[in-house]
């Protein structure tokens, strides 16, 4: 019976979604869809932004986070009261305390992630038609979770202009066969892959944990997994970094000052209370929030069924379609993370549309996109493990390439197509 129950649990949470299976089996032909047809399918009223509506969502989110914080400050009292009336042993008392703290850490990490997603919306100026409101909100929201607002906003918008373009995209750059020092495809043997890149599940899990909790900050600090075209020392905190233009300098400095102020606040808070207090109330949920952020941003574009393009194969439409909508954490992702994973394809086509209108945009463009609309209901933790273990490297040549796994095999085949949609330029679609 226990074996059967474990099998049932695994079959529920550890399996490929049906949409993934269909996409994996279908040979890929690069889309030649028109950006004008996609835009014309969306009702004009969905582009309208309401500052009051956006402020309501931000305010609601702040209130919920404060409620979670107040709950956490009462945990010790709650445990003491429970022990007094129920006579719990010290061991059970510790278990109850840990359970309550774990509950706080989960929900507050979800709330911190929501602050980040709202700041992301501000970076696209999607919350208000008034620029300074977007930037003021974005600076506060992103600084609170230690993300340099203006610096990350610049590189993220560049990501939108070159999504899955191997020369232009900003982050989650895949390793190539050459990077991993693998033999050429025509002479590589199964033993070649086994010796060079095959890993034990335990080591894979260790690398995955490091990336999930620390990867985003390492990217900000020294461009880890960023575009390799940038020189060593590239950082989001460096105004002179090649990531930025000279006119961006003041914004980068302002972001650095804000991050410095937040670090000073955390230091003072630690001084007047203690490190354990700040660790439990802020740092633990902050670390878990980074895990959620890396999870959905990685899964948006890193998948065995999604292509990368080089110069001759890429168009804006193809890049925008090289992403996947996922119902990450169901209603939690929709309510707290404002659908950032649910409607990501629509977001790539319409970056300034407010998040609360994107579900309708998704519905409007699905008929136009047809088979090129990528949706995946695979349980998210399994999808994360699948991508981490299957998306190992790409070939160093080719206009359209798919990830290959640790056995050197791509899970999807494609047809070449040199037709390009040049009807609208990237800068017309992704406004600065």
UniProtKB/TrEMBL annotation:
One of its GO terms (biological process) is lipid metabolic process. GO terms for molecular function: oxidoreductase activity. This is Fatty acid desaturase domain-containing protein. The chain crosses the membrane at residues 54-73, 94-118, 130-152, 252-272. Coiled coil: none annotated. Keywords: Membrane, Transmembrane, Transmembrane helix. It holds the Pfam family FA_desaturase. The lineage of its organism: Eukaryota, Fungi, Dikarya, Basidiomycota, Agaricomycotina. The keyword Membrane applies. Residues 100-374 form the Fatty acid desaturase domain.
